[in-house]
């Protein structure tokens, strides 16, 4: 075993909001190939205003309503199939300190009406432990790995006083293992039988681009043509099929071709404002738990999936597949979108270097312009783009002007504000009146082949079970953009239900705003929208250790934001 690479540690700096690039490869320690030992020395806490910092710490723990305190965080990536058997942490040099004023982490807001989401916080000691961690299996670019996100909290509040440590030692034990993964296909398209022939040109196009593609019909899945059909209902049968397709074929991408009446989505119960649940295609992405076992999203066995709370379901949430949906109602819509994808990937996109940033004063009674703050952070994270702003402070956030600027073409669009099943809108500075853009206004959008990928940091734009006036030809806004025959978008990311966000003067730090910012941070030449979205969700999961995820809003957020479009779509 000597000299064998056993894991990779990625040091994260949330202070800059990006990976530092400091990647360390670990070797066996003292001929013990099943253990990793890390020792850290901390400085005494120092203060700048109300912000406490310590040398060596590279992040902050932000639990709503609790003190913002420094932490040290590492993400360790093990080969897929590895089992983490034990994690221990010893701390040394515990001391007390008084007199420091500490800022409190902001509470999230429900984007729908801007109300603050407060819940009772009873912690007398915070954090409750000196360390915490999260383990999960998922995709890391083109590799499947086991993530261990490890958090050390060198400062703790206890009954209004502060304790801190001078050093800590961590020991991680694990068992090496491997799961058999095939190597026959990269991409599976799941569709009803009547769509198979119309999807053939797309499959052939993908094959020409080096993506090994297979179309599989629902009848073939339910009939057990390729693998034994297991599962209590249709979504679970599809999910078991995907598990078998990973292990036998090696697939990494899945596209659901059809609306939810034709290809079912999973109704999940992580939506915190009602018992009706919401639809989530992300159910099909999360195949394995941290131990490599099937992740059913129903660990309590009551046939209600993705329940949150103390008695809820244990859900891994790291994506094991890159999933997208083209939510076609009929063959005509399917042919429109297939042709758009093929033309997009074969075209010369001179306009792709333009990025449109859209926002305003999301919550005008607050002291910052949240949408424009998110826009600014996205602009800072994407210096390779030419940025065009449509913002209420610039007085160009108007339907006619939006159509005019969109029609000039852009590779990416970042929108941060309010959203509805039938459009989006936001406020001018400090004004209650909202400026709105509705689905019918798309008739004036003339961007032709200049098709963007759009992230809607907003509520409801990808609500899969919505149809305006019960008309199946007028679905949710995010899909209307993709299926538009003479322009629109090539792919959209939106929420299937009402969303929440946390945006402060320090930027987007939670829920929808966080995903928006990290989605664009993940852009690089040749990537796909599905990889960008999964990278943003991985960042979020790695930021939140399980023991300190007290509000559960992160689960709802990760499950409700989905990709409408081709998950293999290559971006310039």
Account of the 3D structure:
It is a single chain. With 572 residues, this protein is an alpha+beta fold. Among the domains are: 7-175, Immunoglobulin-like (Sandwich); 347-564, Rossmann fold. Helices cover 20% and strands 30% of the residues. The chain contains 10 helices and 33 strands. Strands 1, 2, 6, 7, 12 and 13 form a 6-stranded antiparallel sheet that branches. A 6-stranded mixed sheet has the order 24-23-25-29-30-33, sandwiched between helices. Strand 17 (187-191), helix 1 and strand 18 (213-217) form a beta-alpha-beta unit. Helix 5 packs parallel to helix 8. The radius of gyration is 24 Å and the shape is globular. The model is unreliable at 1-29 (pLDDT under 50).
The coarse silhouette is: globular
* Rg measurement, Å: 24 Å
Tally of DSSP helical segments: 10
Q: Describe the biggest sheet?
A: 6 strands, antiparallel
Quickly list its features:
572 residues; alpha+beta; Immunoglobulin-like; Rossmann fold; 6-stranded antiparallel beta sheet; 6-stranded mixed beta sheet; 10 helices; 33 strands; 20% helix; disordered N terminus
């Amino acid at each position: 075993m000597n000299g064998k690479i056993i894991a990779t540690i990625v040091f994260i700096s949330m202070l800059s909001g990006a990976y530092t690039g400091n990647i360390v490869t670990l070797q066996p320690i003292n001929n013990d190939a099943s253990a990793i030992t890390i020792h850290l020395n901390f400085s005494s806490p120092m203060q700048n205003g109300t912000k406490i910092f310590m040398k060596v710490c590279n992040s902050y723990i932000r639990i709503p309503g609790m003190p913002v305190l420094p932490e040290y965080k590492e993400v360790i990536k093990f080969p897929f199939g590895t089992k983490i058997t034990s994690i221990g942490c010893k701390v040394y040099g515990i001391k007390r300190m008084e007199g420091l004023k500490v800022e409190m982490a902001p509470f999230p807001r429900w984007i729908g009406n801007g109300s603050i989401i407060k819940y009772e916080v009873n912690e007398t000691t915070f954090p409750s432990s000196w360390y915490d961690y999260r383990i999960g299996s998922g995709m890391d670019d083109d590799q499947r790995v086991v993530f261990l996100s490890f958090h050390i909290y060198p400062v703790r509040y206890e009954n209004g006083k502060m304790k801190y440590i001078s050093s800590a030692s961590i020991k991680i034990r694990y068992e090496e293992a491997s799961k058999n993964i095939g190597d026959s296909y990269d991409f599976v398209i799941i569709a009803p039988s009547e769509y198979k022939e119309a999807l053939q040109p797309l499959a052939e196009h993908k094959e020409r681009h080096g993506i090994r593609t297979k179309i599989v019909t629902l009848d073939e899945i339910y009939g057990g043509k390729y693998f034994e059909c297991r599962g209590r209902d249709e979504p679970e049968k599809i999910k078991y099929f995907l598990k078998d397709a990973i292990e036998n074929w090696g697939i990494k991408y899945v596209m659901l071709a059809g609306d939810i009446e034709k290809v079912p989505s999973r109704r999940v119960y992580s939506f915190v404002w009602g018992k009706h649940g919401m639809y989530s295609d992300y159910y099909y992405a999360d195949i394995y738990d941290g131990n490599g076992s099937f992740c059913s999203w129903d660990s309590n066995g009551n046939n209600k999936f993705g329940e949150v709370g103390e008695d809820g379901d244990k859900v891994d949430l790291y994506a094991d597949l890159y999933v997208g949906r083209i939510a076609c109602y009929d063959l005509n819509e399917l042919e429109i979108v297939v042709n758009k994808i093929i033309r997009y990937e074969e075209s010369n996109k001179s306009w792709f270097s333009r990025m449109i940033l859209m926002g305003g004063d999301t919550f005008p009674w607050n002291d910052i312009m949240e949408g424009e703050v998110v826009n600014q952070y996205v602009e800072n994270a994407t210096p390779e783009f030419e940025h065009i702003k449509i913002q209420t402070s610039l007085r160009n956030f108007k339907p006619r002007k939006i159509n005019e600027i969109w029609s000039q073409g852009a590779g990416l669009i970042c929108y941060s504000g309010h959203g509805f099943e039938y459009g989006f809108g936001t406020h001018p500075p400090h004004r209650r009146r909202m400026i709105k853009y509705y689905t019918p206004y798309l008739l004036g959008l003339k961007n032709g082949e200049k098709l963007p990928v759009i992230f809607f940091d907003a509520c409801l734009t990808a609500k899969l079970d919505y149809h305006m006036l019960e008309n199946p030809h007028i679905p949710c806004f995010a899909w209307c953009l993709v299926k538009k025959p003479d322009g629109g978008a090539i792919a959209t990311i939106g929420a299937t239900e009402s969303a929440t966000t946390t945006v402060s003067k320090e930027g987007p730090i939670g829920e929808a705003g966080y995903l928006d910012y990290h989605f664009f941070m993940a852009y690089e030449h040749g990537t796909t929208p599905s990889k960008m979205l999964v990278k943003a969700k991985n960042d979020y999961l790695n930021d939140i250790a399980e023991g300190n995820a007290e509000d559960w809003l992160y689960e709802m957020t990760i499950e409700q934001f989905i990709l409408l479009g081709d998950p293999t779509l290559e971006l310039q």
